[in-house]
Amino acid sequence: SLYVSEYFSQSAQKLSFYSWYGNAKVFHFHVPEDTVLLRWLLQASRGKEPECTSMEVTVHFRYGAPPVINPLGTHFPANATVRPSYNISITLSSAVQNTTFVNITTPAAGDWFIAAHLPEAAGRIEVKGFSTPCTYMFQADMFVLRLTDMPVLEPGVAMPQTIISPAKPLHVKVFVPKYTARMWFELRSCVTSEQKACAVRVVLGSITLPQSFQRIITCTGNVNCSLGLDSLPWEKWLQIMVESLGTANASVSVEMLASFTDCRPGSSSSFLNFSSLNQSQAGSGPGSTGTEGSPTLSPGAALRNASDQRSFCLQNQPVVREDLDVVSVRYRLLNGPSVPVYSISPTLLLLNLNTGMDSGGSLVVNLLFNKTSLSQANATVVACLSAASPVLSLNTTRNCSTAFFQGYPLSVSASSAEAMVIVLYPQTDDWFLSLQLICPKGQGECNTAEAKVTIIAYLTPCFNDCGPYGQCSLLRRHGYLYAGCSCKAGWSGWSCTDDTKAQSVGAQNLATLLLTLSNLMFLPAIVVAVYRYYLVEASVYTYTMFFSTFYHACDQPGVAVMCIMDYDTLQYCDFLGSVVSIWVTILCMSRVKKILKYVLFILGTLLIAMSLQLDRRGVWNMMGPCLFALVIMIAAWVYHGVKRRHCYPSSWKRWVFYLLPGIALAFIAISVYAFMETNENYYYTHSIWHVLVAGSVAFLLPPRDKHKKPWAWSQKLTCRYQICQNDREELYAVT
């Protein structure tokens, strides 16, 4: 046998603390056919900064679709069946880097996904630039060992093979045709080179995570071993591994035989009626039921139809896949939304999800039972949704499982006329929906019966669009797209349906009122500025109060939301007004000449607008203008103090009753803003920030000029054609 090793790598990603699925870093790999060994090389590292502490990285694996994870232990939406993900933990303690290997023998060919994340986020709101968070990196590399000349087992043809040693197992593959109902595998003529008792182990199927359904049989002695498998994956290669359990130097000769039992499908007589594609339906979106159903059969026609079905093992119903958008598909039945269901053979629908771009959403299947279509009141329609292969024996076992996959069961009846199943991140494959009629007194009672079931099936990025308290976000990893829900107002869960920590409507209204009405504290600052004839400053404060009020009214996570403009515009105007308000206040305190002050007003505003466009949340967008304005103010105060040979401002009352309280309020506001805000207390800590900043502005504004009366014009018209101005130098003390 000739083995070929291949190596696949992806760039490292920066890990994040987990609060929603967007924080998990996803890696997407494709395992080629005939792979006998898969090895993951997982490398986690952290920075060398003092802030870096011991950390645990959780890594999830899944075949066919991104892993469905729940690190926070929240609730999933109703009707969503979730199976635990396969995961490992990598600890970063004293070592800067940790390297871990994960080996998988005989992995399934196709898409494999890895998701990595840090523990739950603390919820503290970090101000960008105040602290340097530790950087945690993660990289996943994939090594595969592929067999280039894997022997092919022909159906019905015995194939002799030799196992050289236990260290080198035998790998063969067999192709499963479409409409295969059952495969019978037999291993016979087992002989060892040492003429001892034969001991081999046969593994059928490939490993898939988080669940693996490999079938294993152990053969000892000269007795033939056999295994029958129902509902195998159609039109796929099935790997078979045979390994010796004997001594190291003994070779084993075996003979393998595989035989298939096919299934004769029956199809709808109106399959070629393509005019049904153009039929207008009442609902065009996912979840619409349409207006037309299948025609009702007379009792005689139903009896003839039932007799015809005895020669078929299943009834095909044609389904059209209609792509609506990214990760958004609707399935339409050509014969109408209702399908007939019988007891003799299952009704089968094919839902195509094998494009490679469908596994990042949610598959929703809804069944509606027509109570008037069936005379047997106790009859039940049993359904099974499965991937890769359909279930063809619902009437006998009622077990919704195939050879290598555990399906999703549903049932509808007269007492429970509706059933729904939600498959989160369905794996890339052909999905099958099997339906069959079951009668409690035996199948003889249902031989001539026909039930009508309306089927609604669609693929959506986020189930129910994440509800009223969530936002559906489309995430991307290279060329692969998948969706996730970002919840708000205390709601959590995969689809934002977990209300364990949700805010009540009253709490949401209170948060909105606090964050908006706290901006009214700018009114005293505006009144003081107007009274002291600082009209430009008063205009800036009015601008800040207006946009801060309506930005926070639009930024609310709950139902109490009002947006008068685009959210991004309101946010930008709020940030711009806040920084410019601080800028003009400090420049006003410096008491420089008016022409210089207004030039600095305009120039600083333009530079602040540019910096906010580059990085809106950077701390230096606020600290930079503040520090520069403070330098100007201190320089001006020193100049005035040296020129007048006494402290400036000279009045102790000005310091005690205005400057020191204003400075104290400003420092408290900065401390609350930078170190105390979290997601839980944001609505009242940020409201305190509004109150403290607005109050400090009212205290810090300097008094008006003593020689100028309120609202007195500095320039007066004293003659008909000439404007006279008093250019006397200011000789009085300013307090």
TrEMBL record:
Disulfide bridge map: 462-472, 487-496
Protein name as catalogued: TMM8A factor
Pfam families: DUF3522
Gene: Tmem8a
Residues that span the membrane, as ranges: 510-534, 595-614, 620-639, 655-676, 682-701
Organism the protein comes from: Anseranas semipalmata
Annotated GO CC locations: plasma membrane
Lineage summary: Eukaryota, Metazoa, Chordata, Craniata, Vertebrata
Stored PROSITE patterns: EGF_1, EGF_2, EGF_3
Cellular localisation: Cell membrane
